[in-house]
Amino acid sequence: MKYSEYAIGQVYKTKSIKLSKTDIMEFAKMYDPQYMHLDEEKAKQGRFGSLIASGMQTMNISFKLWIEVGVYGEHVVAGTGMNNIQFIKPVFPDDELHVTAEVINLLPRRRGNGIVTVLLTTFNQNNQKVFQAELSALIDN
Question: Which SUPFAM superfamilies match (predicted)?
Answer without folding.
Answer: Thioesterase/thiol ester dehydrase-isomerase
